[in-house]
């Protein structure tokens, strides 16, 4: 979903305008980042040929996908905790977004429901193939929590627009905010310890690295 990367691109440009540093971003420690790569690799394999056409994948693939969401929630929550007092709250926003998506997926048989009218608005028709493993399913009258499903069509001027959820928007916002705060150390997002003395800052348990 390239459209969800747009806020991060805007954040990078804005940070550079404010004399932020890409180097500062790249050297910022991200806890458990290998788990994110594994989760994305699993999704890439699951939802592409030849695996997505296999009977076993259609059967258990949705629950494997849900498991990758739980991994992402754990990674985001871990970084929120270890970044407390620096740039912690954007990680929480992103974690809430993924958690909302995971909740909807879990309550709808391992698929993210997609509003047909939103799909038509973006592509002119639904692209759901019932004979292959896909992470979305048509929204039905019995869909649970439909307002949290994929119901928001992205504008056509975006590169490769898609249909997204509220959770997707929270994830994109959280990551973009973290990127901006990591690049611009003088930004309000970096001032999590305003009003605390230096000894208090050092004693705060949340101000830790990825040592555990």
What characteristics describe this protein?
single chain, 212 residues, mainly alpha, two-stranded parallel sheet, two-stranded antiparallel ribbon, 8 helices, 52% helix, globular
Give structural notes.
- By secondary structure, the protein is mainly alpha-helical.
- It contains eight helices and four strands, in the order αααααβαβββαα.
- It has a two-stranded parallel ribbon with strand order 1-2. A two-stranded antiparallel sheet has the order 3-4.
- Helix 6 links the parallel strand 1 and strand 2.
- Helix 1 (6-17) runs parallel beside helix 7 (166-183), helix 3 (33-46) runs antiparallel to helix 4 (55-82) and helix 5 (89-107) runs antiparallel to helix 7.
- The radius of gyration is 19 Å and the shape is globular.
State the gist of this model:
The chain has 212 residues and is mainly α. Helix content is 52%, strand content 5%.
Task: Please write out the topology.
Layout: H1 6-17, H2 22-27, H3 33-46, H4 55-82, H5 89-107, E1 112-114, H6 116-123, E2 136-138, E3 152-153, E4 163-164, H7 166-183, H8 198-203
Parallel strand pairs: 1-2
Antiparallel strand pairs: 3-4
User: How do the SSEs run, as a string of H and E?
Assistant: HHHHHEHEEEHH
3D shape? globular
Query: How much is the radius of gyration in Å?
Result: 19 Å
- Summarize the main sheet: 2 strands, parallel
- Bin the strand percentage: under 5%
SS element count, helices: 8
Number of strands: 4
Give the neighbour order of strands across the main sheet.
Answer: 1-2
Structural class: mainly alpha
How far apart, in Å, are the first and last alpha carbons?
Answer: 32 Å
Q: What is the average of the pLDDT values?
A: 88
Helix content: 40-55%
Could you list the spans in which at least 5 consecutive residues all have pLDDT below 50? 192-208
């Amino acid at each position: 979903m390239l459209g969800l990367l747009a806020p991060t691109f805007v954040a990078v440009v804005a940070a550079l305008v404010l004399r932020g540093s890409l180097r500062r971003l790249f050297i910022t420690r991200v806890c458990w980042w290998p788990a994110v790569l594994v989760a994305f690799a699993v999704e890439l394999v699951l939802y592409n040929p030849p695996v997505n056409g296999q009977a076993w994948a259609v059967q258990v693939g949705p629950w494997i996908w849900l498991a990758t969401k739980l991994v992402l929630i754990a990674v985001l929550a871990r970084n929120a905790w270890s970044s407390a007092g620096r740039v912690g709250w954007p990680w929480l926003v992103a974690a809430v977004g993924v958690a909302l998506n995971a909740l909807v997926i879990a309550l709808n048989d391992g698929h993210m429901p997609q509003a047909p009218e939103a799909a038509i608005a973006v592509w002119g028709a639904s692209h759901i193939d019932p004979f292959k493993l896909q992470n979305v399913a048509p929204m039905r009258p019995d869909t649970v929590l439909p307002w949290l499903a994929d119901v928001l069509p992205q504008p056509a001027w975006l590169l490769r627009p898609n249909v997204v959820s509220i959770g997707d928007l929270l994830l994109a916002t959280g990551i973009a905010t973290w990127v901006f705060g990591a690049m611009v150390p003088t930004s309000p997002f970096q001032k999590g310890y305003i009003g605390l003395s230096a000894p208090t800052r050092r004693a705060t348990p949340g101000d830790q690295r990825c040592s555990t």
